[in-house]
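dumping this here before i forget
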Amino acid sequence: MRLAVATCQFPVDADIRRNLGYVVHQMAIAKRRGAHVAHFPECALSGYAGTDFASYKGFDWSLLEACARKVLERARELRLWVILGSTHRLTGRHKPHNSLYVITARGELFDRYDKMFCAGDGAGKSLDLAHYSPGNHFSEFSIAGVRCGALICHDYRYPELYREYKRRGVEVMFHSYHAGHVPPVRLRAMRKGVGLELHRINSGSTLPEITMRAAMHAAASNNYMCISCSNSSARQSCWPAFFVRPDGVVTGRLRLHTAGVLISTVDTGRRFYDSTAAWRDRALRGVFHSGAVVQDKRSEDRAVL
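structure:
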């Protein structure tokens, strides 16, 4: 099976209409370049609370819904699947979900992934949890015969999520991020937190730049799946959108701070190096060794030389 993926980035902001303009424009580019699906960053349509705007107090939910419907209409016109980052309103005093809408090439809402691991403390008053309610479900769907899944940003810190998607047969992950719009003061603090003397021996100068990208290499190769990594390009962005193949190798990357569309083709018939192929299923079943365990007294006694 072959699946052409458009990994999209643009400077996500609080202006919903502006975000919509980028989304529909990049959808058209994706279709023109042969993509089956266009993948957008976390909160691409709504903007990201606590970063792009202060809170959801006074938020224009009617406008967000109207703009989301325009994306559905455009997906139907283009015959294009869309993985759209946005915010999903709940009822009463419940905080909304930070979500990815899975939109089919018929312009229908097939599913919605809600960020399960929102960053923040147990009191729910900091970071994501100050603005969002966590989700509690996985999202699986097939595009062009290829099994796909979805995750959002901080979920990358929980490899158990990738393992569960692997159990479910997922071959391509759409992982949306919003590691952008970092104000200068916070950026300096982030860089200082890493340690100025360590920048030159790491793959970046901030923890998002170092750990998010490294985690995607590891998740792809440990689980033998492709990963589309979409990010906001709003200054300061921590890294540009990229695509990783199943052996952990990056096959394409966009330019930092520049709106763009990256096209990557998944060919499930092509085989890549996979050092864990023989034993991964065993590990998933909770058997934590390769080969055959021997029965030997010197093996059992771990307090002798």
